[in-house]
């Protein structure tokens, strides 16, 4: 039964293998806590009170925060909705179980000065003509100038690029496709990367991936994460260092330079404006700094 659910999420819902793996892990943990095996899982034996008790256990003894518990609860809710839809249960016992409240955390981002230092350092890598140096620089530049997600970049194929390298089609959450513009200054870098793939015989198979290993294979998300961290470490960027931080940096810098929230929402592939509005908090912090420097009484207590 559970394997049918995972197949449904993978093939019909078209979720990524990584997302489905997370669903499987969350549900396996819950089923194990119930004292059942995955093969012997019987939803009719599960009560609403069992799920509430599980939430309390995860909160008090599991060492998890509200956001992590809510993610696990979301997996269980998705399972029960599927069980109801396929007539395996008569009602959804998770429907009125509320998620835990958790405070919104401001997204981390790199200051404009830090990005200037990083981009300057990348120029040397690009000029080297070494495939891996050019590719790693391209990875960082695409995250920063396109605001795409990690899975979107790793999942992109070279055929998703427009003929003139001015746009990239990506598949976002829920398999929603969107076109993201590529900055005109990035186009020469993309063309150089494409040339090196041919000149150095990087891709000698039928692999269509945009981001390739030196062996011509699609790069894993974990490898991309390590590359981004190494690049940010290189110029002394403090705090969290990940592709998601560069995505946040993209949005924050656009907002600071006057971009409209609706435009940023569309560029980032957010389904609702609420997801984009969190960047206004960083914008307000910047405005407060400007106020303190510029107002005659700004530095007075």
The low-confidence parts are none
SSE order, one letter for each helix or strand:
HHHHHHHEEHHHHHH
Shape: globular
Let me know the largest β-sheet: 2 strands, antiparallel
Could you tell me the number of beta strands? 2
Can you name the CATH architecture of the largest domain?
Answer: Orthogonal Bundle
**Total domain count:** 2
Mean pLDDT: 85
CATH fold type of the largest domain: hpI Integrase, Chain A
Radius of gyration: 23 Å
CATH homologous superfamily grouping of the largest domain: Intergrase catalytic core
CATH class annotation of the largest domain: Mainly Alpha
Class by alpha and beta content: mainly alpha
Share of helix among residues? 55-70%
Structure in words:
By secondary structure, this protein is mostly helical. The protein folds into 2 domains: about 80 residues, Tyrosine recombinase, N-terminal domain (DNA polymerase, domain 1), CATH 1.10.150.130; about 180 residues, Intergrase catalytic core (hpI Integrase, Chain A, Orthogonal Bundle), CATH 1.10.443.10. Strands 1-2 form a two-stranded antiparallel ribbon. Strand 1 and strand 2 form a beta hairpin.
């Amino acid at each position: 039964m559970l394997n049918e659910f995972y197949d449904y999420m993978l093939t019909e819902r078209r979720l990524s293998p990584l997302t489905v793996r997370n669903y499987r892990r969350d549900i396996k943990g819950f089923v194990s806590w119930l004292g059942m095996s995955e093969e012997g899982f019987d939803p009719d034996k599960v009560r609403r009170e069992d799920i509430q008790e599980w939430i309390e256990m995860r909160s008090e003894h599991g060492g998890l925060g509200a956001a992590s518990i809510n993610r696990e609860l979301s997996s269980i809710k998705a399972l029960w909705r599927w069980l109801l839809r396929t007539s395996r249960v008569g009602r959804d016992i998770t429907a009125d179980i509320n998620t835990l409240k958790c405070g919104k955390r401001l997204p981390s981002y790199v200051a404009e000065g830090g990005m200037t230092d990083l981009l300057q350092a990348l120029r040397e890598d690009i000029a080297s003509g070494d495939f891996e140096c050019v590719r790693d620089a391209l990875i960082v530049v695409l995250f920063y100038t396109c605001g795409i997600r990690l899975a979107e970049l790793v999942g992109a194929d070279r055929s998703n690029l427009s003929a003139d390298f001015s746009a990239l089609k990506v598949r976002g959450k829920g398999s929603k496709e969107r076109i993201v513009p590529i900055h005109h200054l990035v186009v020469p870098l993309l063309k150089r990367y494409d040339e090196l793939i041919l000149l150095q015989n990087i891709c000698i198979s039928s692999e269509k991936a945009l981001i390739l290993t030196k062996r011509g294979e699609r790069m894993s998300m974990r490898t991309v994460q390590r590359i981004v961290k190494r690049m940010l470490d290189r110029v002394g960027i403090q705090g969290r260092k990940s592709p998601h931080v560069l995505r946040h940096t993209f949005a924050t810098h656009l907002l600071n330079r006057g971009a409209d929230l609706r435009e940023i929402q569309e560029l980032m592939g957010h389904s609702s404006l609420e997801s984009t509005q969190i960047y206004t908090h960083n914008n307000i912090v910047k405005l407060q700094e400007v106020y303190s420097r510029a107002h005659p009484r700004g530095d007075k207590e």
